[in-house]
Predict the structure.
Amino acid sequence: MLLLLYPVFAGADTVAETGAGKPVNVTAMVTFLLFVFSTLLITWWAARRTRSRKEFYVAGGGITAWQNGIAISGDFMSAATFLGLTSLLFFSGTDGMMLAVGAVASWPIILFLIAERLRNLGRYTFIDVISFRLDQRPITMVAALGSLATVIFYLISQLVGAGKLIQLLFGLDYVWAVSGISMLMIAYVTFGGMLATTWVQIIKAFLLVLGCTLIALLMLQHYRFDLDAVFHSAVQVHPRGWDLVAPGGWLTEPVSVISLGLTALLGFIGLPHILMRIFTVKDAKTARKSAFYAIAVITYVNLLMLIVGFGAVSLIMFNPDYQNAAGGLAGGRNMVVLHTAHFLGGDVLLGFVSAVAFATILAVVSGLTISAAATIAHDLYAKSIKQGRASEKSELLVSRCAVIAIGMLAILFGIAFEHHNVIFITNMALAVAGSANAPILLLSMYWRGLTTRGAIYGCLAGLVSSVSLIILGPQVWVDVIGMEKPVFPYVYPTIVSAPLAFVTAWLLSRADNSARADKEREAFAGQYICSEIGAGASEVASH
């Protein structure tokens, strides 16, 4: 979960300094190499079955419900779920659960409001749905800006975290670490497409569930399987005492809390790489089942992290080797789960958990890359530039070239942001997704009055306002630029930018009396019928 990445990056520089001088953890290296070897074998297998653009983008639509559900959970849960949530619970208490609740709460909306219509109306990306009854060329180009901005900001954050973890695991130079991760990402997506990416995410999800379960069981065993003891021990030793389980430990202003909730809810709904997974199954019924499986896995992992985060307090808060979670193995004061793993299972468990965190990032990066490639090749090249006249062979070639270009850019951005506090970039990703993507997606599916003009300016309003307010907020204006006070006082701009996108789209659509707008309103009935019937909707959309 992206908003949780702050704890990881806050201590990233320290991780690099201590990790580089440590001996290699054999367990971590073996687990890492097994993961890489198995996923490369999967890529070789998938490459032999990936020949068409449908197979490249959505694995031919042949992924089963349980496979896709587990892959969605693997794509959705970044290393921040594993590393960041436990750290936030450790230091801030129950306020950290707001992020977990926001992430889980977005899935019933995806399940009941989005999954079925998205699968019936689209072919490869959520932009297919937005442009279903609107003027395809202009709306596709504008929506692609929001989609690519979200994916790129997300990608940079994941790569920086992965680079720091590789430094910790193997003592490699940061540049080599980021380059190696990007090369693996290019190999997975270029040759194996969505099929290889899906199985990488399934393996990652299995490892993540296994790692979380193992730590939680060892934690509960330490407390003799008494949940009351877990929380009472934390309250007794934590400097905040009973305030640890009271609200207000992290965000104290109601506006900030509401804005954070909107960022989590709308942001996750608007993530392009998550929405793209809806198209990898054969029909809407299977898409709904996929979302249900994803909810189950995501909820289970978040509940385990609640136990681990609070249980870690009495284990390592005043332990001489891990005092204040500031020294010890991970170096960074916020990598609590790594300290906890070492306390409970020594170097063996630490190595396994570290490798799981790396696998988590690599799987998410692969999903992000194929989503960006689909946006560039399918939405921008085939639909906008070629206006539907691109051959399948040329589109597939552009897709693979886009993957390589994205990988090269990822290396450059990852190196450029090594020493930066990249939390503002992670916030940008969800703010853009929740302000530019989610409002237009929801309006296009459920409001007959939406027109091309309203969609374009609504999307631009959400995109420009979210980016601008983050720059003017405390994360950039104060922490990066060095000004004394922020122009915009809140960390998360979604409380302003998301409503602005909705209102702009509504006002300009209502004010649009052109003949084209009338036809677009009338076409909503046809869109609704297609979304209900499902059969042939994607082919209608292509015309």
